[in-house]
Amino acid sequence: MILSLEAVTGGYGEVDILNGIDLALEAGSILTVAGTNGAGKSTLAKAVVGLLPRVGGRIRLDGRDIVGLPAEERARAGIGYVPQVANVFPSLTIEENLAVVEGVADRRGRIGALLAMFPALAERRRFRAQSLSGGERQQLAFARALMTAPRVMVLDEPTAALAPSRVAESFERIATLARTGIAVLLIEQRARQALAISHRGAILDGGKVALAGPAADLLADETAARLFLGAG
């Protein structure tokens, strides 16, 4: 397993939002984490990337416990992160958004390679990010996270701000990431669509894993469908 969580707890102040999470993620696979609002999904993402103030238990990257590492060291160790909001610098150009990412050896070459992956960004590379559509901003957020060539990508609600016509494109982009060997931890409200491209899934409830298993099994589970997955 490239990423594993063992009895992970944590939250803000003295209040625990996560109450003993056990999850594991293999290289080149997608694990969707779903659940109702307030279940702890985004808190889990922050715990993995190092942005949660207080975390207990173990989070292992390639067997190394990273709980004590700050966010920047986790990024250097191979964890990329696309938050739900504030995921680009609006006043900077597309190129500048990529250039400010730290810890990149061949910065110019990496920017060129990523712009080739996102033609819409390449065409507007000198435009400020504030001029981009929601879908283009998401592409830029993905590109920023990929600058350091991460082995694990943590995506927090990547389709939340997208027009319905862009949702399928976003899920295809996520599936493509996994096909390149990157492990993807996907936090997503559109649970059915997310599980459809995933290898495994987990449903949180009250900061605990209520259900977990192969994605296809969760999609077929009547209890999961009734209580957690909704219509989309």
UniProtKB/TrEMBL annotation:
Pfam families: ABC_tran
Coiled coil: none
Keywords: Amino-acid transport, ATP-binding, Nucleotide-binding, Transport
GO terms for MF: ATP binding; ATP hydrolysis activity; branched-chain amino acid transmembrane transporter activity
GO BP: L-amino acid transport
InterPro entries xref list: AAA+_ATPase, ABC_transporter-like_ATP-bd, BCAA_Transport_ATP-bd_LivF, P-loop_NTPase
Domain ABC transporter: 3-231
Family label: Belongs to the ABC transporter superfamily.
Entry protein name: Branched-chain amino acid ABC transporter ATP-binding protein
